[in-house]
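Session log. Operator J.P. requested a structure for one protein chain; no other inputs attached. Running the standard single-chain path with token output.
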Amino acid sequence: ISPLTTHVLNIAEGAPATRMALSLHRLDHNTKIWNMLTVGTTNTDGRCPGLISRAGFTPGTYKLRFETGQYWDSLGQTAFYPYVEVVFTFKEPDQRFHIPLLLSRFSYSTYRGS
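Structure written below.
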């Protein structure tokens, strides 16, 4: 099981946000450059399993980038946010992180889940 999970919900329609592209990045603290670690797409449940392995998830600063504009375009709709980036700090190697994204065309919300 990946120590990092996400779940994207289209709250405007009350359904999972399927086929949304996303990417995971880690900040290099020396150069201050974001390095892409992996890319994925949400499944029919709005989840993207297997984002990163336990060995690859080391303490540091990460971001999940969700391609929300492409998602809304695929539904034939326009949106205010072309993408959403959720930046978070990971310090406890034994913990799991769940980062949900609740999304509509003109707003979003996120939190640290369990």
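Operator note: Residues 68-74 form the longest helix (7 residues).
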